[in-house]
Amino acid sequence: MKKLTVGIIGGNGGMGRFFDRIFKKHGCDILISSRRTELTSKELALRSDVIFISTPVEAALEIAKEIGPILREDQLLADFCSQKEAIVKCMVENTKAEVVGTHPMFGPTVEVLKGQNVILCPGRGTRWLEWLEEIFGAEEAVLTRMDGKQHDTFMAVTQGLTHLMSVALARTLQRLDINADEAMKFATQVFRLKLDLIGRLFALDISLYNSLMGKNPYVPGVLNVFRESLDEAFSKASNPDDKIGLDFLSDLRDFYGDFKDKALSETNAIFELMYSGKK
After folding, report:
1. What is the pTM for the complete model shown?
2. d(CA 244, CA 279)
3. pLDDT lower than 70: segments of the chain
4. Contact (Cβ atoms closer than 8 angstroms) between residue 4 and residue 50
């Protein structure tokens, strides 16, 4: 069987380097192009069986338009962008190659795929989609297929809203003039974890978070629901009438069902690790 060549445009970034290791492990040759390589995106595309675009979505859209028309039907054009609807549509419209939108739901600081969520958004064809599922499945990733619109709607919650909540809490502490080091002195276990998540956000690439919050068209709708939920939670959960507050919280507890017990176990394990001094 012919040895496959995987080309990664933007492959010198963290996610590109991570998947460089994964595909090499499965016997593929790897080509890398970036602004710092002599190899151009078009040259990489012509020499590869599988082409991944590993750049911010704005750049990915331009790259897809540039290389898509020169690809053959037996090649795969894919991406690692955090938003999927626009890039999958763009790739399908600009190439005859098979198309798969790929979103690894983790940052490049992880070491293995095992247990990590990877979302695949089929665009055209099934041959390479099944090949990707075979490789990622062999690495014990958790794979989910969905279309680009559904993906972006979910990401408006799991990424957009999540990061907006962290930013809003950070701004609240700033306005109250409570720095993180001082807050740690009176933090509960839960609040300490929230402070760590804020610190993590600002320790990484803030341009990525800005894109996740500002460029996903479904974030505003989710944020409106959150604002309404915040007002409702304030009026009910903190209501002096215990029955109103308990009824509200009981309804939410029922909604989360058995998940609450799993969450308690997992967070207890996190807290034990945080306070045990283990690395």
Report:
1. 0.87
2. 43
3. 1, 277-279
4. yes
Where b means 16+ CB within 10 Å and e means fewer, 222-244 reads bbeebeeeeeeeeebeeeeeeee
CA dist 271 and 279 (Å) reads: 13
What CA–CA distance (Å, rounded) separates 104 from 261?
27
* Alpha-carbon gap, residue 15 to 237, rounded angstroms: 41
Q: Around 251, how many Cα atoms within 13 Å sit in the side-chain half-sphere?
A: 8
pLDDT, residue 212, reads: 76
Do residues 104 and 126 lie in contact, with contact meaning Cβ atoms separated by under 8 Å? no
The reported pLDDT for the residue numbered 277 is: 60
What pLDDT is stored for residue 60 in this prediction?
Answer: 96
Alpha carbons 185 and 276: distance in angstroms, whole number: 17
**Structure tokens, 275:** 């306070």
